[in-house]
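Quick illustration, no need to memorize.
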Amino acid sequence: MKKNYSIYNLPENVIFCKKCVVSNQRPQSTIEFKSSNNQKKGIKFGKDGICDACKYNDKKKVINWKEREKKLFHILEKYRKNNGDYDCIVPSSGGKDSSFTAHILKNKYKMNPLAVTWAPNMWTEVGLNNFQNLSRVGGVDSFLYTPNGNLHRYLTKKAFLNLGHPFQPFMHGQKIIGPKIASQLNISLVIYGENQAEYGNDIKDNEDFLMNSDFYSCKDDQDITEIKIAGSSIKEIINDTDFQLNDFTSYIPLKKSVISNKKISMLYLGYFEKWDPQECFYYASQNTGFKPASERSEGTYSKYTEIDDKMVPFHFYTTFIKFGIGRATHDASQEIRNNKINRDEGVKLVKKFDSEEPNKYLKEFLQYLDISKDQYLKTIDSFRSPHLWNFDEKSNKWQLKKTVF
């Protein structure tokens, strides 16, 4: 095998976007219950050296947003109930984006949304307060769904050890809980914020306001015991542990026939409202009592993005280890695209913060996963792809072979 191969099937020649600071190592979103660590698709770049996320951002500048808004009002009319029942589900973390989504649907579009939250692994104080404020200050009804804690902790540990992705079980649950609750309450509309294509999935995905049902449902003939979570099938986990199939109820996606019979649709608000994460923060602060953290998040310079879960810093740090793309790269890229900072500023922020190791919640992280610090460090190093990393014997440190700076 080649010395500098990519273990994630991403391009071995690393290039950076000429407009933002993202590289071609940024993986596209995957179907979590089918995910495999070595089958990644990266963000696409044109011959001009510009990434698809930046190209779509340029398209957003010429979209007639007033016409899109009218279209959304028209679409929502067929879901509006006017009988006291909920019209739609908003999958929510209590973060700025979902708070913006739920509040604007209720107040601008006059819908009756129910915000549904898949509980974080470990609440932060500010995250819990923001979750509560969506209802207490923002006036949006809210439902908190907390999965089997013993199983979720086990899956989180396995996801870290197997995939280098401790956030994978949470992301899996977050994607399927909206339609599952919608099915139970006979609600036909689930509304997310922005499409992940805003940040690097196939640019063509932005042409449709509906989410691909493959992300939240499975075929009718799917053997549910073969569904993968944390790098293992449900069947394998049951065989290796004392967990039973019924313990996995929260993690099993709806069948496609259920989606079809109940006519459940997953819609992206970001198709109709020009999406800008910083503007979502300002809106949520003014209307739902959303508060930023008291200090910047580890690995980046911001204080208001994904601050609800103590697991988040480790999620972004593992993406830095696996793909050479950390939290500052993520934040700076989208702020460059939205003209909040320029590329030179973004490069400096990436250089200063991207490689920062998360220490604030490390003790709690290790306790939650029931692993030692030595096991944590060895696991981290095992996910460094040879085409990205080099171990410098002189300094006794790992170094990225190529950076944006």
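The two ends are 30 Å apart (CA to CA).
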